[in-house]
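Quick one:
INPUT:
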């Protein structure tokens, strides 16, 4: 059995461990790292953004449909809406779930961005040079 890393990794910030492990798993060559970093960035940015946009679009269409029925049918709009689409309460619950899901996915996207992006740049990687200990020269 061959040991891949003989020296155990000491983590200064355990929050970067997930990103570091993913970064190590996706490539070791500089070209591979660049392509994989672009793919990871696309995953971290595009997936939550598209999910939030889709849920927001769904909630907006539901609100727009309800508003259109209120405008077109006046006081009897609820009866007509329930004949066409079902319960108004169920539609409003779906809107609330969609908005709540969009908020949760936005926070998940922010958390993924904060976890993975510093790790892909090499922060928290003991084998990469650290820039935090360097001092800038004064001119």
């Amino acid at each position: 059995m061959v040991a891949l890393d003989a020296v155990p990794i000491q983590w200064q910030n355990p929050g970067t461990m997930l990103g570091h492990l993913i970064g190590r798993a996706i490539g070791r060559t500089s070209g591979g790292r660049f392509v994989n970093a672009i793919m990871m960035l696309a995953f971290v940015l595009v997936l939550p953004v598209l999910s939030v946009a889709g849920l927001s679009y769904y909630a907006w269409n539901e609100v727009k449909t309800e508003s259109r029925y209120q405008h077109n049918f006046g006081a009897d709009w609820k009866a007509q809406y329930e004949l066409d689409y079902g319960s108004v309460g169920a539609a409003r619950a779906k809107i609330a779930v969609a908005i709540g899901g969009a908020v949760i996915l936005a926070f998940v996207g922010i958390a993924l961005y904060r976890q993975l992006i510093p790790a892909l740049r090499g922060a928290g990687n003991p084998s990469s040079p650290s820039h935090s200990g360097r001092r800038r020269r004064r001119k």
